[in-house]
Amino acid sequence: MAWRSSGTSNASLVENLWRNKLITQPLVKAAFLRVDRAHYAPSSPYHDSPQYIGHDATISAPHMHANAAESLLPFLLPKVEEGHQSAEGVASVQGRKGRGRRILDIGSGSGYLTHVLAELVGEDGLVVGLEHILPLRDLGEANMRKSAEGRALLEQGRVRFRVGDGRKGWCEPGEEEAGWDAIHVGAAAAELHEELVRQLRAPGRMFIPVEDSHGEQFIWTVDKDAQGEVVKKRLYGVRYVPLTDAPKG
Ligand code: SAH
Questions:
Q1: CB 51 near ligand 1, within 6 Å
Q2: Do the Cβ atoms of 60 and 113 come closer than 8 Å?
Q3: Dihedrals φ, ψ of 75, to 5°?
Q4: With 90 as the cut, is the pLDDT of residue 203 above it?
Q5: What is the tens place of the pLDDT at every residue in 146-163?
Q6: Distance of alpha carbon 146 from its chain centroid, rounded?
Q7: Distance, CA 174 to ligand 1 centroid (Å)?
Q8: Which helix (H) or strand (E) holds 138?
Q9: What confidence score (pLDDT) does residue 98 get?
Q10: Is the pLDDT of residue 173 over 70?
């Protein structure tokens, strides 16, 4: 699948992801078009493959980022209260009036997906990128500073990069009880960590690669409905770097 969607520019990469039905929702396509992957991938940015970014980390392949954004979309867009404007027929995130969502991106690495997610939550949303390696926290922020749009997101406090162990989730200081409408995990977990499920709002969705006892990894979605019922679904096989302890020293 990887080679099929590669492009020679950001626009052609996104067009190929669209043509191959890896991106199917116009708002997701618009968000991908707004973020130049060259600001985040140190080499071959328009190739549909992962690239090494240092510290044993990779920026995931564009088709995986596309799939994550497509899956999480209903929990990213501003939440329109029932009886108000319908979700359909709204051409832009800016045109949607509703409560901004709170999103946690665990293992933010290059910061690329963090930025794409921020394009989807709109002006009142918040995306927190969480890394356990300080230089990678800083890399995500520095990459985002390369564009005027990225700098504005940081300056307006709509994106924050933090350091911590993602297996325990994350609480913003002073916002301990707020929880997250969506949690994206960018590294393979050894289990579906209960603390992450607890921090999901009701309703909310988590997108997480999990490694099983045979060493095989699968993407799971964990949905919490408005009543707090949790449904876990195993989707398809993947290859991610593991969610680990932070290196010593
Ligand atoms: N979404 C990123 C993926 C980076 S690779 C991107 O596409 O650029 C996975 C990342 O998870 C690495 O940056 C790694 O440092 C981070 N990571 C691994 N274990 C972690 C943990 N316990 N807590 C937070 N981040 C972790």
A1: no
A2: yes
A3: -105, 5
A4: yes
A5: 999 999 999 999 999 999
A6: 19
A7: 25
A8: helix 134-144
A9: 83
A10: yes
Least Cα distance to 96 among 79, 82, 83, 118 occurs for 79
CB atoms within 10 A of CB 190: 13
- Quick one: which atom of ligand 1 is closest to the CA of 184? 1
In whole angstroms, what is the distance from residue 242 CA to residue 208 CA?
11
Q: How many CA atoms lie within 13 A of 141 on its CB side?
A: 18
Distances (CA, A) of 106 to 43, 97, 133, 146: 23, 27, 12, 22
**What pLDDT is attached to residue 237?**
96
Cα–Cα–Cα angle for 75, 86, 232, nearest 5°? 30
**Which residue type sits at 105?**
D
Task: Round to whole Å and give the CA distance between 76 and 202.
Answer: 14
CA of 247 to the centre of ligand 1 (A): 12
The residue-averaged pLDDT of 73-102 equals: 76
* Residue 109 near ligand 1, beta carbon < 6 Å: yes
> Known catalytic residues?
60
Q: For residue 135, give every residue at least 6 positions away whose Cβ sits within 8 Å of its Cβ, in sequence order, or none.
A: 54, 55
pLDDT band at residue 81 using 50, 70 and 90 as cut-offs: confident
- Domains of the chain in sequence order: 55-79+98-238 (3.40.50.150)
Q: How wide is the angle at C-alpha 50 spanned by C-alphas 29 and 188, nearest 5°?
A: 95
Distance CA 180, CA 203 (A): 9
| Ligand 1 site, residue 60, Cβ cutoff 6 A | yes
Output the six-digit token pair for 27.
């708002």
How far, in Å, CA of 248 to CA of 9, rounded?
39
Q: Which of 145, 153, 107 is nearest to 126 (CA)?
A: 153
Question: 178 falls in which pLDDT band (50, 70, 90)?
Answer: very high
